[in-house]
Automatic annotation (TrEMBL), chain B:
Record-given protein name: succinate dehydrogenase
Enzyme class: oxidoreductase
Keyword Iron carried by entry: yes
Alphabetical list of SUPFAM superfamilies matching this protein: 2Fe-2S ferredoxin-like, alpha-helical ferredoxin
Annotated source species: Nocardioides marmorisolisilvae
Entry keywords, A to Z: 2Fe-2S, 3Fe-4S, 4Fe-4S, Iron, Iron-sulfur, Metal-binding, Oxidoreductase, Tricarboxylic acid cycle
A Pfam family annotated for this UniProt entry: Fer4_7
PROSITE patterns per record: 2FE2S_FER_1, 4FE4S_FER_1, 4FE4S_FER_2
Amino acid sequence: MAIQNSGPTLVQGARATQSTIFLKILMAASGAVFIAFVLLHMYGNLKAFNGHDAYNEYAEHLRELGTPMLPHSGALWIIRAVLILSLVVHVYCAATLWKRAKKARTVRYQVKKHTGAIFASRMMRWGGVTLLLFIIWHLLNFTIGKVNVTGGATNDPYNLVVDSFSTWWLTVIYLVAMAMLGAHLHHGIWSATQTLGLTNSDRTRKLAKNSAFTLAVVIAGGFSLVPIFVLAGVINK
Amino acid sequence: MKLTLNIWRQTDANDAGAMHTYQVDDVSPDMSFLEMLDVLNEDLNAKDEEPIAFDSDCREGICGMCSLMINGEPHGPEVTTTCQLHMRSFKDGDTITIEPWRASAFPVLKDLCVDRSAFDRIIQAGGYISVNTGSAPEAHSVPVPRDDAMRAFNVATCIGCGACVAACPNGSASLFMGAKITHLGELPQGQPERDSRVTNMVAQHDHEGFGGCTNIGECAAACPKEIPLDVISQLNKDLRTAIKHGH
């Protein structure tokens, strides 16, 4: 350690809730909401294998969840509110930490090896941006705008799914997005357990990394099944 | 061995700096990396050129003074410090790029020397325990479970060289902090200040301009003392506990 004592002084009145680690904890917590969401969403999508009526009944059931205690679509809107809040928190923390990381090294190395890093961990930020763009398109496609790229009807969820994924380029977009989601989850799930302080030994770290990989494959793979089987003509109208 | 060296030269903190190329002949594979630079500096001295400034002290791998980014890896290709790296790890005719640690919190002072006093201030903020001075207490008066003692000892091997910061894509010093937090937090003597320690050290870390951790793991791969990644989990857990206790 060097002897020179330049400008910076000791921080007075430090608050743990104003630290970079607190931002990371918020990212992990909001990320956990998304993990639960994509797991359930993926499971729901697989209803497409049960045919037109089962899939549409599931979609309608989501709106009747909790009725008559809750109004029609009430539970769905509660879930949506939690997801929107989580998204705002997740993106805000990511942007703040990204900006900070850029400032922490303003002069880049001429030569830099990335020993210890993997593709998934190095892709977190740009992968996150890709997923954000995908989510916007996905909501326009199936929720808010209901875009049928084949020009057909949009009022029948099952038929919209079949029409959409019969279009090869749309299926490609979704499969690329699922690869990005898998990579994001692969690093993100392990990173969240580490940030929450659950991996304090070699054993738990390996367990967290293996679980993250498995979950990422199950979720991204599960999501990919419906588009692939629609394109292959197995799931049809 | 004949080598081509691309070395960062910078006259002082305000200079822009640039890479310079040097040829060194007659390098013995048994030389340490720093001895190789000593030979180059003697050569530069003989030619009335300014020798290359680099940090070193014990040259035994225990003080944490030496640094250097060698071909994109802190302390070079072996798991050891630069002073304990030998030229046999390179081949005749190799080109070696040597750069200083790059982090805003570690400003370059000259050539390959950076100011790492940010680490000193992180230690000053919380890397200590309060004990009564005077005669040494009876060692057996405070029992320490074996596993706790081993973990504390293993991470206490951190020499504060800054390789973790140099390797980190975010310029974070989390592995360094994690090592100190775990070292002191595993022992009974470290308990009274446990919450304030993590709060103050992390606040100082952020204040110095280090980045946030994204758990990529390049730090642990670069650490010459093989500090494991689980110390960062410990750091995060201690901070979470401190928040719960109202810090």
